[in-house]
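A.,

Following up on our hallway conversation. Structure tokens first:
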């Protein structure tokens, strides 16, 4: 069997969904289709969740979200909208009429997960009226997690068992299910982190021992830079699992960082294909030797906060201070993107995380002198050389520069 994953862009309107059906029809193997929310739905729901949590008016963004889906429904079904699609917004309405609890991350998951429920219900109904029959599975009955809402950790043995029980291919050749969302063992909806559908697809591929996982994207494959940033970006034809992990670690957005490991463990290849030109060869990630590759790969991680920490007394920071700082970071689930020690201070770069940043800084300030700048970005170049460094540096101020044999990293202020 194979697993196909379609991201938001590849199901963003009725014509994209029709293209997706064509791609599915060309597959002769047993298939699990994993889809995310349509277009920019997750961003919209994030916005709604935030407004609602803060007691603000949500009418306009809610109407936009519903209109967007209704347009797709009427384009797909014209006059014959199936009955079950008439009630798809009910759980969202019900949620938004209730009073939020104090736990933003919990509420976030309850609201944001609705994007994937909407997309899969609409697409399942559309498959239903075609000759392509796809069996709908609510993935919350399969992927089980802890209760770390918004970034839930997967409980692998349960997930694997439920996946093998549900995706049997006895009565169906094609299954359709959600990426990104899951459920805790006490049946509360959780999510796996933004862009997490790739990870969901990899979990299912691994559990069911798929021949391969194909991720359909609006780019020709994995590029050596974001084409919106560098117009001469090139496709990378083949990548080792290890190199793919490195790239996602540094912030490459093509695939979710957690996607590779479950695949690597079972030697399942990951193919990144263009849904715009499905017949073209995309990128292959698997057991390949790319250790001699010289193609520079550019990764830009924006919205970083550069924090510099100094002791309050005129002394150096001691190891106990560093360990205290890392303990705080780990307690707050904040990961460090880059760190640098000097005689005078300890500097770290972290992602800007809402509701997390202020308490973290406040806690730090109790013990240290803290300065921060929240307008930074980290540029990473794998296989760097003078030319590739020059291309990135131009005349920007470099705040930090770190190099190893293969990798150069630069922290600078974000370009506007
Ligand atoms: N819809 C989710 C998001 O946009 C998950 C995904 O697309 O992978 O983050
Ligand atoms: Mg998405």
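Then the amino acids I'd put at each of the 416 positions:
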């Amino acid at each position: 069997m194979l697993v196909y994953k379609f991201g938001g862009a590849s199901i963003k309107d009725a014509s994209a969904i029709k293209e997706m059906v064509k791609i599915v029809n060309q597959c002769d193997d047993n298939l699990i289709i994993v889809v995310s929310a349509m277009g920019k739905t997750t961003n919209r729901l994030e916005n709604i969740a935030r407004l609602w949590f803060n007691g603000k008016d949500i009418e306009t963004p809610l109407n936009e979200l519903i209109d967007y889906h209704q347009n797709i429904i009427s384009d797909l079904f014209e006059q014959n909208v199936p009955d079950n699609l008439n009630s798809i917004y009910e759980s969202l309405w019900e949620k938004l009429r209730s009073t939020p609890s104090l736990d933003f991350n919990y509420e976030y998951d309850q609201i944001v997960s609705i994007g994937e429920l909407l997309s899969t219900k609409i697409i399942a109904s559309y498959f239903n009226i075609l000759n392509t029959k796809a069996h709908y599975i609510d993935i919350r009955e399969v992927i089980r997690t802890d209760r770390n809402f918004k970034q839930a950790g997967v409980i692998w043995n349960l997930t694997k068992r439920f996946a093998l029980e549900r995706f049997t291919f006895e009565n169906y050749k094609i299954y359709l299910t959600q990426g990104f969302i899951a459920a805790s063992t006490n049946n509360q909806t959780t999510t796996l982190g933004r862009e997490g559908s790739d990870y969901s697809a990899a979990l299912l591929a691994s559990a069911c021992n798929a021949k391969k996982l194909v991720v359909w994207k609006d780019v020709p494959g994995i590029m050596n830079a974001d084409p919106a940033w560098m117009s001469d970006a090139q496709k990378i034809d083949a990548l080792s699992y290890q190199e793919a992990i490195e790239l996602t670690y540094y912030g490459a957005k093509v695939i979710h960082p957690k996607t590779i490991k479950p695949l690597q463990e079972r030697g399942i290849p990951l193919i990144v294909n263009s849904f715009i030109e499905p017949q073209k060869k995309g990128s292959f990630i698997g057991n390949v030797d790319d250790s001699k590759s010289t193609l520079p790969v550019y990764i830009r991680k924006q919205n970083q906060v550069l924090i510099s920490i100094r002791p309050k007394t005129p002394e150096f920071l001691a190891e106990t201070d560093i360990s205290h700082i890392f303990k705080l970071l780990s307690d707050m689930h904040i990961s460090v993107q880059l760190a640098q020690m000097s005689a005078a201070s300890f500097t770290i770069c972290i992602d800007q995380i809402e509701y997390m940043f202020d308490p973290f800084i406040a806690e730090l300030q109790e013990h240290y002198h803290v300065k921060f700048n929240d307008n930074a970005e980290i540029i990473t170049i794998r296989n760097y050389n003078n030319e590739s460094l020059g291309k990135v540096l131009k005349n920007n101020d470099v705040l930090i520069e770190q190099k190893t044999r293969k990798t150069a990293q630069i922290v600078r202020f974000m370009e506007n």
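Residues 2-286 form a domain with the Carbamate kinase fold (CATH 3.40.1160.10). Curious whether your intuition agrees with the design.

B.
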